[in-house]
Model the fold of this input.
Amino acid sequence: MATANIYSRTGETIGTVDLSETLFGQEVHKQSLYEAVRNYLANQRQGTHDTKTRAEVRYSGAKLYRQKGTGRARAGSNRSPLRIGGGRSFGPHPRDYSYKLPKKIKRLALKSALSDRAINERVSVVEDFVMDIPRTAEMAKLLGCMPLKGHHTLVVLPHGTETLYKSLRNIKGIRVLRHTELNAYSILWADNIVFTKDALSGAEEVFGS
Done:
């Protein structure tokens, strides 16, 4: 069974916790991870790209020169895609790139991503605490005291911790999510995952089935 170290508010190790086998002890399924990342990135696309067709460019529609007798190839107008400044053939137009991924595939990808981070000892837990006002410097000091590897860290918080959220969101290399917002892409983005105790139990309750 995978375990994770528990850290105090000052960044000191105060024990270990067993991670759920159903969430952190699964075989890594690479195909589901690929599908989940592809789906996430596709759903983030705005799809606002647009090009003008020959009907939309601003040029006269008059015939450039007479059809015969010039020795040149016949030409209709400056709006032709063959001419500089003319319309574009088969160019991109606004569209929706989003699509739905089967729930089982998303759940499998999430468990695979969490299991991969747990196997490589990249999962940590911080004891629950409350802050009266946001203190970014204090949270940066806490993360600096923890043995985090790499540059990207995903911090998972429970709901109802707005001051913690505001304290973490501006730290470079940190991404903050609620435990119900966990997704395979964000987990793979992160070199380390830091849960609060409540967030860990909440994630196991939501996604552990």
Remarks:
- DSSP finds seven helices and six strands in the chain.
- The first strand starts at residue 3 and ends at 7.
